[in-house]
Every structure is written in structure tokens, then in C-alpha cells.
From TrEMBL:
<dbReference type="InterPro" id="IPR004408">
    <property type="entry name" value="Biotin_CoA_COase_ligase"/>
</dbReference>
<dbReference type="GO" id="GO:0004077">
    <property type="term" value="F:biotin--[biotin carboxyl-carrier protein] ligase activity"/>
</dbReference>
<keyword id="KW-0436">Ligase</keyword>
<dbReference type="Pfam" id="PF03099">
    <property type="entry name" value="BPL_LplA_LipB"/>
</dbReference>
<keyword id="KW-0092">Biotin</keyword>
<dbReference type="InterPro" id="IPR003142">
    <property type="entry name" value="BPL_C"/>
</dbReference>
<protein>
    <recommendedName>
        <fullName>biotin--[biotin carboxyl-carrier protein] ligase</fullName>
        <ecNumber>6.3.4.15</ecNumber>
    </recommendedName>
</protein>
<dbReference type="InterPro" id="IPR004143">
    <property type="entry name" value="BPL_LPL_catalytic"/>
</dbReference>
<dbReference type="InterPro" id="IPR045864">
    <property type="entry name" value="aa-tRNA-synth_II/BPL/LPL"/>
</dbReference>
<feature type="domain" description="BPL/LPL catalytic">
    <location>
        <begin position="26"/>
        <end position="215"/>
    </location>
</feature>
<dbReference type="Pfam" id="PF02237">
    <property type="entry name" value="BPL_C"/>
</dbReference>
<dbReference type="InterPro" id="IPR008988">
    <property type="entry name" value="Transcriptional_repressor_C"/>
</dbReference>
<keyword id="KW-0067">ATP-binding</keyword>
<keyword id="KW-0547">Nucleotide-binding</keyword>
Amino acid sequence: MTPSDASAGASAGRWSSLDRPPLNAAALKRALVTGDGLWTSLEVVARTGSTNTDLATRAAELPEGAVLVAEEQSAGRGRLDRSWVAPARSGLFFSVLFKPGDAVPQEQWGWLTLLAGVATATGLSRAAGVDTALKWPNDLLVSVEGEERKTGGILAERVADGVVVGIGLNVSLTEDELPVPAAGSLALAKASVTDRDPLLRAVLRSLEEWYGNWRAAGGDPAASGLQETYAAGCATLGRHVRAELPGGRTLTGTAEAVDTDGRLVIRTAEGKHEAVGAGDVVHLRSVH
């Protein structure tokens, strides 16, 4: 998509939904790209396939702190190649570029997915007064009439000299617009704020804070407070779960901890502990 395509799309759709106004790109840049902080650029496009794909393609030529936001994604991706589709301007769909360099050992870069979850939950709590729980490794959950529902997801992808982290968040979706019944949105969770501009500012400022602390600690999840904070907000811990692992193997048991490598530690019925670094985790109903 060319810049003219983006501009045309933004112009054509500017007043198509009074309940879903476009993001104010100029105001966001003034607030976030200050010259002395993490964020070095912020671009808002009307529509693209995937912000992660676009940013990853340009990562080598961009400095750390580039932010790409789309009002609509036609090929948004989640983990395991799942699609992420939502109406235009109904959520926040953006990617950021991190380049920790030598400050953080590369074996700790996997923590960026969990860091993004903590930062997003913290930012939403401050800006919207909504409790957002974390489902290992990359889902954001809210409570809708007492039911746990997924309202967002995180996808981290390694690039040549860094990591692109994409965040998708359902903001104003109604019950009729949900892609699946188990999905949710901030509006359905009775968030006090659904204006996307302050929400995006809050999440990006929280990301900057958490990333700065983690990087300053050399990527140490304990010293930066990341491991403890993630565990405190993780809805997976203490739950009976089924982990669907690469290769078709499944593991069932109780999720007991997140270790220093960011892996989920599961205790099986036989009392054995296994650390899971990748897989799809399903929260099961209590066996009691």
C-alpha cells in the first residue's frame, strides 16, 4: 500500500462511523515521539495486511522504537498462523520494533512477548480502569459478565537485529461483531474509556517503561520485576490446563509457575514437572 492509498482511505472513511473516529496521528506523534524517549517514529495507515509483516520488512533500515499502527488489518496474524480480523477502527492494531543489542543476551529476548503482555495490561488498567489478565504466553483476557474472554493477543517475531512485537486489541467490538463467541472487547468489559488515542498512548508509555527497566537489568526477568509481575497477573497459573505441544503431543496438569526462561511449568498428575516453551494452552475446568 502506498502513502496515497493510506491517505485516501483515511479521508474516505473519516466520518463513516461517528462512534469510531480515526486516530489522531499528529497528536500521537507529538505525545510519544519526543526525541529523548524510546519511540523514534510513529506511522498510522488506514489499512494494511499485517503491521508485523510491514515493520519486519523494513526493520533493518529503521532505528529501535519505530511504531506502525493500522486502522484496519486485512491479514492480521496471531500465533500458529491464526488470523486476526476486526472492523476498521474497532481496535488497536500496531507493531513496535525493539533492538536490545548487546544490552540483553539473545536468549532472554523471548521475554519480550511476556513483557508486552504485562505492559499492555498495566497501561489498560491505568487508562481504562479495566482488569486485564494474561493467558500464557500471549493472550489478554477480560471479564464479560463473569466470563473470561480473549480481547487481545501478542505476536513477537525475530528480525535480523531485533524483535518486532505486534499487539492486537479489541476495543469497541459489539457482541454481534465478535469473530467467535469466546472473544471479548474493552467495551463489553465495561471499560471506562474506549477512546483509542489515550489507550494507545497509555500502552506505548507502559511498554517504554517496562522495556527500559528490563533492558537496564540486562534482560534479567527477576531483577527487573517482570517475572513477578507477570506471574501475579497470569490467569493460567494455578489452573488445570492442557498444553498442545509442537509435534502433536499434549500435556495435561496444573500450571504452577513461569520460570526464568519464560516457560510455563506444568505439574502432571504423576507429580512430574515439565517446562513448556512453546505450545497452545487451554484452560480446563477445575477437576475438583
